[in-house]
Design brief:
- This protein has 140 residues and is an alpha+beta fold.
- The chain is built from one helix and eleven strands.
- The chain is elongated and about 50 Å long.
- The chain binds copper (II) ion.
- Copper (II) ion binds next to loops.
Length: 140
């Protein structure tokens, strides 16, 4: 029992560290917007989940549109989609999205466990990082 508590605390602290790490990245980069060099312009990430409420094993389309300086970003370094379950015993999933053209990165997937997931799209373009999130509800 005691061991379990310690592990939980460790996991909680580790998650917190990861979240802070990402947030710090973002705020640092916001301060770097100077001049019109693309690499110094923040990226704009639009996350869409179709549909936002599904049944177990139903098809889910996740689309991430990445732009910078009003231009489509077709060569993002990484677009990682993270599914964080609300339920403690749920499964945490990460998947890399693939560029499907015109600055759109997509994943087609389905969920095996009913839960409410926080879907976070971590997008890295050069030194820029943006990570908008949306809720996905999966019912039985
Ligand atoms: Cu991130």
């Amino acid at each position: 029992m005691r061991m379990r508590t310690q592990i939980s605390i460790f996991v909680a602290m580790f998650s917190l560290f990861v979240v802070i790490g990402c947030n710090n990245d973002q705020s640092n980069h916001e301060g770097m917007n100077m001049g019109d060099n693309d690499s110094l312009t923040p990226i704009i990430v639009e996350l869409s989940i179709q549909p936002e409420q599904v049944k177990v094993n139903d098809k889910i389309m996740i689309e991430v549109l990445v732009t910078q300086n009003n231009k489509q970003v077709t060569d993002a370094n990484k677009v990682l989609i993270e599914f964080v379950p609300l339920n403690e015993s749920g499964t945490h999933i990460e998947m890399e999205a693939i560029h499907a053209g015109e600055g759109k990165y997509v994943i087609e997937t389905s969920m095996e466990q009913p839960d409410t997931y926080s879907v976070i799209s971590h997008v890295t373009v050069g030194a820029m990082h943006s990570m908008p999130k949306k809720e996905l509800i999966v019912t039985k």
